[in-house]
Amino acid sequence: MPTSVELADLEALAVALASEAGRLIVDERPEELGVAATKSSATDIVTVMDQRSEQLLRRRLLAARPRDAVLGEEEGSSVRPAGWSGLTWVVDPIDGTVNYLYGLPAYAVSVAVVTGDPTLPGEWEPVAGAVCSPAAGEVFHARRGGGAALRTRGAAAGSRRLRVLTGQELDGALVGTGFGYRAQDRARQGAVAAALLPGVRDLRRGGSAAIDLCSVAAGRLDGYYESGLHPWDLAAGQLVVEEAGGVVSGWQGRPPSGEMVIAAGPSLHGALHGALRSAVEEIGRRVTA
Ligand code: IPD
To answer: Whose CA is nearest to atom 16 of ligand 1?
Structure first.
């Protein structure tokens, strides 16, 4: 684990890089933004700005932190450099790419630095990170043990510490979620959402997992869950929630991973976990009946 001084430097770098890439994807977005490639399905898209944003992040990281490794959504894992520091930067150059393509504001650049191996589910831990939501003029950031904060620019410029909401019952909770890109995953995720919906205040599908997690940290959502997330969707937002006093887990106390991510304040987390578990078990019974 880096020292507290090192963590502060890593957090500052994450903020600077997420902010710079956030400016790039706003300022240099072409008039005609096309789809450059598709991934797991025809709707899982990559734009030229996803590629340019990741290239920028990789260039800056190579210059600033040559002994760290990089895992990015578009280019995958870098080769670990000779004399590897033990740290890996996990970057999502545009989280919420479909929102970005359609001109909806909920997209972000997510930059985190983790210990362990981010390619192995549950075997890594974020230690510093930032999520820049450029259309909102917001940067959420945190470092392990140092709290979480939101920096805002524009008319409401300033910085404030983040705290999750507490004391909410499940039936009054506003819960965020998301859906993957493959049809078979979506059918199951839709069934879980339908089972949960009668028991909560409402559900939101914002379209960026990183912003959803930061919304839990900022008290804009009571909770959030999603299955199928990748480390780059999760790493920075997870740390922001934890440093804002929240709990982020997978199933049954396991670390959050692609299998499941459940994020909420400590008082709501158990109830949300329980309701999701019941929903999944009920759907499993129906499928096997
Ligand atoms: C997606 C978004 C979305 C979530 C998907 C992610 P991308 O990331 O975070 O909210 O529901 O699971 O894949 O593809 O826009 O980087």
So the answer is: 95
The domain 4-161: what is its CATH number?
Answer: 3.30.540.10
Candidates 99, 208, 215: which one to mutate for ligand 1, based on the most atoms within 8 Å of Cβ?
208
> What is the Å distance from ligand 1's center to 230 Cα?
9
Task: Tell me the domain boundaries of the chain.
Answer: 4-161, 170-288
From ligand 1's centre to the CA of 227, what distance in Å?
11
Beta bridge partners of 139: 132, 151
- Asked if 246 and 255 touch (Cβ cutoff 8 Å), the reply is no
Q: Is 288 helix (H, G, I), strand (E, B) or coil?
A: helix
Residue 75 Cα, ligand 1 centroid: separation in angstroms? 16
Residue 87 host element (H or E): strand 87-95
State which fold the 170-288 domain adopts.
Answer: D-Maltodextrin-Binding Protein; domain 2 (3.40.190)
Q: pLDDT averaged over the chain?
A: 94
By the 8 A CB rule, do 140 and 242 touch? no
Task: Dump pLDDT digits (tens) for 180-229.
Answer: 999 999 999 999 999 999 999 999 999 999 999 999 999 999 999 999 99
